[in-house]
Amino acid sequence: MATAGNYGLASRAFRQALSAASESGVSGQLLVRIMNSLASTYADAGQYLDAEREWHQALAMVEKTEGPESLDYALLVASIGTLPTPTENGPETINTVRRAIARYKDGGTYRDLALLRGCLVQMLIRQKQYAEAERVLADWQSAPKDDSHRQQLAQLLNTVGGTQFEQGRFAESVESFRQVLTVIEGEVGIEHPMLVVPLNNLATSLLKMGNTGEADRTYQRAIGICMKTVGGDHPTCGALLENYSALLRKQGRKREAKQMARQARQIQQASDRRNGLGAVISFERLRAAGR
């Protein structure tokens, strides 16, 4: 269900699995894998606070059983670090992920290293550390890969495109995002929620280049997929509508733009309330709750 983009049914199934595992006395890596799967599904569904709670609980377990220098610990820290919820562990997260990449560069799987590198690049971009982000991307691109790693390839290309965009290299970012779409469509078809973010990124890059016609069509396709698959209350839909309202303003469609921006704010404000955004959340409190 998660692979098909049906996050509601997937999260329900993972919760049932977690409940069954707890009642049966299951512990260790299997329990952590279930919690990680549930957290990932929550994150895909835009339920960031729920995702963070599950990841912190799994992190506390791994810290006790494997230690803070383990690969599993670093993977969980990296996943938490990409969420938009306001934790207080930015530098700590970056250092943990950076050390894990160095430690497991020659022995870790491509999938795990792709997750670590992707998370690290996202966090570096947030801090505008573009030079280091480019170095991480160069290592990632030089790693051997094959057709079994197509989803990681899409993640890589999307991260490359995001780095190019943040540096104002919009033409390059357009090509990167087009490649992302080609890879994802070949894997999951033309109406999967995985397409929404790269479509938004492509449309935004096209808008920056002044190509409003194609940007308009691309935004509309992204909004249609988002509404159909994850629903109009997903925070990604709010971001899409906000971006589309900027395009409408450029086209002189001010009334439509104003309505679109109002709808976007309503979706985002509701999402923020659900996810605790706008409030100060103590990292130590969250870790304590996880234990």
What fraction strand? under 5%
CATH architectural designation of the largest domain? Alpha Horseshoe
Just give the CATH class of the largest domain.
Mainly Alpha
Structural class: mainly alpha
Task: State the major sheet.
Answer: none
- Strand tally is 0
Shape: globular
Radius of gyration: 19 Å
Order of helices and strands: HHHHHHHHHHHHHH
Name the quaternary structure. Answer: single chain
**CATH fourth-tier homologous superfamily of the largest domain:** Tetratricopeptide repeat domain
**What is the CA-CA span between the terminal residues?**
29 Å
Estimate the mean pLDDT confidence: 87
Looking at the structure, the CATH topology of the largest domain is: Serine Threonine Protein Phosphatase 5, Tetratricopeptide repeat
Number of helices: 14
Structural domain count: 2
Task: List unreliable stretches of 5+ residues.
Answer: 278-291
Helix % is: over 70%
